[in-house]
Amino acid sequence: MKFPAFAKHINPTAGDPKGFGEINVEIVCGGVKVRPGDWIVADDNGVIVVPKEIAVEIANRSLDVLERENRIREEIKQGSTLSKVLHLKKWEKIVG
Q1: With the CA atoms of 34, 37, 40 and 41 taken in that order, what torsion angle do they form, in degrees rounded to the nearest 10?
Q2: Does residue 22 sit within a domain?
Q3: In the chain, what are the helix, strand and coil shares in percent, each to the nearest 5?
Q4: Is residue 51 part of a domain?
Q5: Residue/partner pairs of 56-62 with CB below 8 Å, 24 or more apart
Q6: Which range of residues forms the domain containing residue 53?
Q7: Rounded to an integer, what is the distance from CA 34 to the centroid of its chain?
Q8: CA-based, 20 to 30 A from 2: which of 60, 77, 79, 95?
Q9: Separation of alpha carbons 51 and 28, rounded Å
Q10: Domains contained in the chain, number
Q11: Within its chain, how far is the Cα of 37 from the centroid?
Q12: CA–CA gap between residue 75 and residue 73 (Å, rounded)
């Protein structure tokens, strides 16, 4: 079906129908509260819940990180080094 599904465990049974269920209600999944409107972001490394109140801010910050990483990759392709692009000196640590 090419539908991304993430699971902590695999259970070969379908479960028992226990009613019609609910839509747009708060749940707890994996010990994390998920509310209607929250964003679920997942990849091969894990799954996170982004609260709806900060979802747009997080998306914008993510785009900023992507743009910066793309610029760094392009400078390295042009012949620079990671330490030069990030203005690092030997053994220097990045803070913040």
Answers
A1: -140
A2: no
A3: 30, 15, 50
A4: yes
A5: none
A6: 27-85
A7: 15
A8: 60
A9: 13
A10: 1
A11: 16
A12: 6
pLDDT, one tens digit per residue, over 22-75 is 899 999 988 999 999 999 999 888 899 999 999 999 999 999 999 999 999 999
Token reading at 4: 């991304």
Residue burial 55-81, b: 16+ Cβ < 10 Å; e: rest: eeeeeeeeeeeeeeeeeeeeeeeeeee
Q: Indicate whether 4 belongs to any domain.
A: no
The residue with tokens 């998920």 is 34
pTM: 0.65
Is residue 14 domain-resident?
Answer: no
- Give me the pLDDT at residue 92, please: 58
Q: Quick one: which of 15, 20, 38 has its CA closest to 28?
A: 38
